[in-house]
Amino acid sequence: MSKESKKATAQAPVPQEVLHLVFQEADIAVLQSAAELDETLKGEIIIIRDDFAVGPLYKLDEAEGWQARKEWWKEQLLRSPYGDTTDMVNDRMTVHNLKKALDENEQLVLWMWMGQNSHDVCGYYWLIGQLKEYGGRVYVLYMNNLPFINEKGGIFYPTAIHEIPAKEFRKAKKLARTVTPSEFEVDPDEWKRLSEENGSVRILEGGKKIATKGDDFYDAPLLQAISADWQKIPKVLFNALGKMKIKTGDVFLNGRLKALADEGKLELQGDFTKGWKDCSVKLAGVPAVAPATEQAV
């Protein structure tokens, strides 16, 4: 073997194990499907479940701040069909276990998958400052305004990881890059800024730029989906989300329906203790064409 060959062999990278991290439940299934097509994508998949694009963020590194956020989510969820699931979500424990895995296996690297949306990017900002000690082993795969081929053969620009067809992950994985030392320094400051602004809504304005907005940011498109006639809330939320350029979760939007009703802009009816499935909404002060048969709340 020549000196050059020996040198190349010595410098060859040691195969590393990959731990995948996503920010949305639907991302898990498509990443699993991609791994069936490409063995290099195989690895455990973990998820940060909270949507940090909405709700209070102030002092989440303290017990009081974390409890305030948990109570906020509980209030939102109790009016949804999902019920109170706050005790089932423990992202801080997920991060604890993630760091433990990285400590115990020096060959393990983390791949964070991010779609171009406020949910994923806000989750990244919450997480990145907690991983600074693992520089060089933390990778980000950010689908930032990048074209892919959909199932019909057309070009599209996905805003979420789960929108990418499994076969396209061979291309997506080429975007993996290490988080830079500069990002480890600067990005935690972005999280600090968002926490101190402590608004209820955060949106992605391009790149990784997150802007804080008021509680009423989504009210206009929500009101546009509501008429003078009673409509079931699931239908209203589906129609509103379908027309929104900037998406958010249905639980948050349902919470805004309650807020708008409290302001006298909407009327609600139905038993919200059973979720929104059989609950209805209409514009306030405008007689419905067909009278409602349920008791108003």
Q: How would you characterize the overall build of this protein?
A:
It is built from ten helices and twelve strands. The chain has helices spanning 3-11, 25-37, 63-77, 91-104, 118-128, 169-172, 181-197, 219-224, 233-243, 250-262, and strands at 17-22, 45-47, 108-115, 138-143, 148-149, 155-156, 177-178, 201-206, 209-213, 231-232, 266-269, 280-283. Strands 2-1-3-4-7 form a five-stranded mixed beta sheet, with helices on both faces. Strands 10-12-11 form a three-stranded antiparallel beta sheet. Strands 5-6 form a two-stranded antiparallel ribbon. The model is unreliable at 1-15 and 291-297 (pLDDT under 50). It is of the alpha/beta class.
Please bin the fraction of helical residues: 25-40%
Strand content: 15-25%
Please report the number of helical segments: 10
Class per helix and strand makeup: alpha/beta
- List the helices and strands in order: HEHEHHEHEEEHEHEEHEHHEE
Spans of at least 5 consecutive residues with low confidence: 1-15, 291-297
Distance between the first and last residues' Cα: 83 Å
Global morphology: globular
Enumerate the strands of the largest sheet in spatial order, edge to edge or round the barrel.
2-1-3-4-7
Largest sheet: 5 strands, mixed
Global Rg: 22 Å
Tally of DSSP β-strands: 12
Mean pLDDT rating: 90
